[in-house]
Amino acid sequence: MGNTGLYLALGVATVLFLVPFYLIVRNALSTDADITGESWRFFPADLQWGNVRELFDDPSVPFAQALWNSTVVAVLHTLGTLLVCSLAGYGLARIPYRHANKVLYAVLFTLMVPAAVTFVPSYVLVSSLGWVSSLRGLIIPGLFSGFTAFLFRQYFLGFPKELEEAARVDGLGYWGAYWRIVVPNSLNFFAAISVITFISGWNAFLWPLVIGQDQSSWTVQVALSSYMTAQTINIHLIFMATAVSILPLVLVFVFLQRWLVQGVAQTGIKG
Amino acid sequence: MATTTPTHSAAKGRTARGAAPARRRPRGFGGSRGRTLNFWLFTGPFLIGLIVFVYVPIGWSLWLSLHNAQGTVAPTEFVGLDNYADMLGDGDFVDSLVNFTIFAAIIVPITYALSLTLALLVHRIRFMKAFFRSVFFLPTACSFVVASLVWKMSLFNGLRYGMMNTVLGWFGIDSVAWLASPHPPWYWLVICSARLWLQCGFYMILFLAALQNIPRELYEAAAVDGAKPGWQTFRHITLPQLRATSVAVVLLLLIAAYQAFDEFYNILDEGRATWGRPPLVDLYLQALGANQDYGHASAGALILALLIALVTLAQGRFLGFGRGAEK
C-alpha cells in the first residue's frame, strides 16, 4: 500500500472514530427540534449554550450531585488503590519472608475470579455492613485489586536494587527506603497506574448501579443510564450531560497522553 | 506464624521463584524478625481488604449457592446442588451463556483484526503518528454508558432522524428499526459496533508497543532473504513476533466479553429484552430484580467464574501465556 493509500485509510477511520464525538457535541448544543427535524442538520441552527444551565437546573436528575460523587469516588478510589496496592506490591517483590510465596498465590488466585462475577456476594456483604447508597460502599470494596498489586510487584521486581542499597547505607529501614527512595523514583509508573485507575473509577457502572440505590449516591454513569429509561427528559439535555461527563476524561487524555499510553502498554502486556 | 525465620530458607524461597537478585543478601534490612514485621506492615492492609472484600464474598457466595436464599441473605434451608442444577436447566441463564458465545465469536476476532490493522497502519506512517494514535485511543475515555447512549439515542435510534437511517436514506434505503425486534438481529450490529469503537484503540496501543519492540534487523534479514515487504514479511516476521501480545490480547478480550454488562443493560432496556442478554445481566436481574434470589444468582456467578477460570487456564496451557508474565 502506498503512502497515499495509508493516509486515506487512516483518514476514513478517523472520521468513523470521531462521529460519536461529533454527535455528542452536536446534540448537546441543539434544541430538540434541531435533533429530530425531518432532514439531517450537520450543525445546530443556533448553538444552545443555555443547555448547560438547563441541565444543572433540571430537578428530575441531580446531575451536579452525581458529578461531585463521581469526582470523590474516582479520586479516592485512585489514591486508595495506589497506596494499598503499591505497598503490597513492594512487600511481595522485595521483603524476603518465609510465607511470601503463599501470600502471592493468594493474591494471584483472586485474578481468576473477576470482580464483576462476585458482585452478588459483594453486594450482600456491603449491604450487611449498611454501606448501600454511601460513598464508603462505592469506594472501599474496590480498593483491593489483586491485579494492580500484581502489576506493582512486577514493577518493583525490576526496580534497581542499587538505589535501595544506598538507602540502607544511610540507615533507612524498608519503610524509609520505600517512601524516600523507591516512590520518588517511580513517579512515572505511579502516574501511569493512577491515570488508568482514575478512568476505570470514573467509568465504572455495574457496581455504582448496584450500590447507588438512592439518587443522592448516583455517580455520573448511573445518572446517564437513568436518562435512557426516563420518559420526561429532553434529548438535548441527555447529550449535554454526556458531554459534561466525558469532558474531564478527554482533558486527561489530551494532557496525559504519554503516561496513559505507557501505562496501557505496561498493564496490557503484563496482564 | 513463626516470628523467627531461618534466613537461608527465606533467601531460598525467593530464588526458587526465579527472583535472582536475592542471592547475595542474607541479612536484608534488619533481622529476620524485622523482615517478617515489615512484610506484614506492607502487605497487611491490602491482605485484610482482600480477605474482607474478596475472599469473604466468594465464600459467602459459595454458601448462598447451596441454600434456598430467596429474599434473604441469611438462609436456613440447605438445598445442596439444586441451585446449580436449576441454573444449568434454566432457559434464561443457558441462553445467556449462548448469547455470550455468539458475542465473543463476533467481537473477539473483529477487535483483534481491527486493532492490529490500526496499529500496523499507525506504525508505518511517518507523519501525524501521534495524531492518529490519539484519535483511535480517544474513545477509551468514554464509558460503555456513554457509548450506549449515543448508539441508542442518536446513531441507531431506529427513527428516521437517526444518523444511520439518515445515511441509509441518502442511498434510498428505508429506515431500519435497529433495536425493536430480534429478527433480523440488528441489535448485534448496534452492540458490537459500540464495543468496537470503545475498545479497539486500547488494544491498538498494546500492538503498537509490541511492534516497536520487534528488532529492525529481522526485517533487514528477511529482505536479504528475498521476502517481499507486505504480506510475506507480515506473516513470517511480524505475526510470530507479536505472538505473546496476541495471546494476551485474545485473553483480555475473552474475559472482557464474558463480563459484558453495561452496553447490554443500557441498549436493550435494562436487560429486559430476553434476547441478547449476557450472563452478568441475567445474574443482575436474578439477584437485584423482583425475586432477589441470591441462591440462584450465586450459583450462576460461580458457574460463570469457573467458566472464565477454565478458559483462562486452557488458553494459558494451549498458548503458553504466563511464561512472559512471570519474567
UniProtKB/TrEMBL annotation, chain B:
Entry's transmembrane regions: 37-58, 97-122, 134-154, 186-211, 242-261, 294-314
The keyword Membrane is assigned to this record: yes
Protein name: Sugar ABC transporter permease
Species: Streptomyces rapamycinicus (strain ATCC 29253 / DSM 41530 / NRRL 5491 / AYB-994)
Biased composition (Low complexity): 9-21
Domain of life: Bacteria
GO terms for cellular component: plasma membrane
Family in the record: Belongs to the binding-protein-dependent transport system permease family.
Region (Disordered): 1-29
Entry membrane topology: Multi-pass membrane protein
Keywords: Cell membrane, Membrane, Transmembrane, Transmembrane helix, Transport
Main localization category: membrane
CDD domains linked to this entry: TM_PBP2
Subcellular location: Cell membrane
Lineage of producing organism: Bacteria, Bacillati, Actinomycetota, Actinomycetes, Kitasatosporales
Family matches, as SUPFAM superfamilies: MetI-like
Domain ABC transmembrane type-1 positions: 97-315
GO biological process: transmembrane transport
Alphabetical list of Pfam families matching this protein: BPD_transp_1 (PF00528)
